[in-house]
Amino acid sequence: MTAGHRAAGRSLVVDRPGTHRLISGDVPRPGPGEVRVRVAAAGICLSDREVYDGHRDAAYVRYPVVPGHEWSGTVEAVGEGVDAGLVGRRTVAEGFRACGVCARCRCGETSLCGGGYAETGFTEPGAFADHLVLPARLLHLLPDDADLRAAALLEPSAVVAAAVRTGRPAPGERIAVVGAGTLGQLAVQLLAASSPGELTVIDPRAARGEQALGFGATAAHTPEEAAGLEGRFDLVVETAGAPSTAAASCRLARRGGRVVLTGMFTPGAEGIDPVHLSLSQLEVRSVFGAPSAAWSEAVRAFSLGLLRPATLITHEFPLERFEEAIALVGSGDANVGKVVLRP
Predict the structure, then answer these.
(1) Quick one: which of 250, 202, 192, 197 has its CA closest to 224?
(2) Fewer beta carbons within 10 Å, N or C terminal of the chain?
(3) pTM of the predicted protein model
């Protein structure tokens, strides 16, 4: 593109819950320290559905907004002070716009930045668009031959990597993954690389359990069957965010075991029994988003072939069919896996 010519670009704007429009405008220019990325693919997750339906906590969304926090693309232009060698590189990027100077950022906990919540696709323009402008410091570059369709799932992969880092799996341990949606399937893939003695996935959908077996799980059970496994596992990674799964995950852990909660729960979810928690001496941690280190680990695992997210994609739509695409997410249809927009 010449300096005097600005082509048109499209963006999907959610003005307020339940209302969206596809708009066209000038291709954005990256400012100092920024890059412009041509979006290749953008995943839709339940949090995007929450934004569209108006169910996301008001502190974590700012309307009007261009959603899209799971994405991949190619650097198309750079702003002042940014290495021009980035142009043409395939990339993903962290969603949190961490300040980098607060106490939590200095400790490497960038997903807990004390500078105020700001995240691509929720408070900042996201990737349901032809182009995305963001700080260059957030980029995680991919190999030149990376599958950009699959790389759109590196954001949930980074969340899973954060959970695995927190859970500290050791070779030979008994591990359970509760939930076999996108996060659960990615968790199975990463955990399988830790050489567990047992890797059990728990989900009411038999087809999802079968899929997890193909990714390295050693057993798949329904929640009813899993009732007989309480107190068995060294590590339980919860990914479903269903009303009962936090409490159920704690019951699955052995005494002294570890539980990591990655699902996004809604008010009214079943609480964790404090008596069981204290008597069992459980270590319970939660994960919200992913710090920089987890992004690095997810990208490395993807580049090495340890993560295979492409097989989780079941539906692809252009931006013009956003309403059809968002309706599938959270619909309960067993045939719907990951839904992706392809600008």
Answers:
(1) 202
(2) N
(3) 0.94
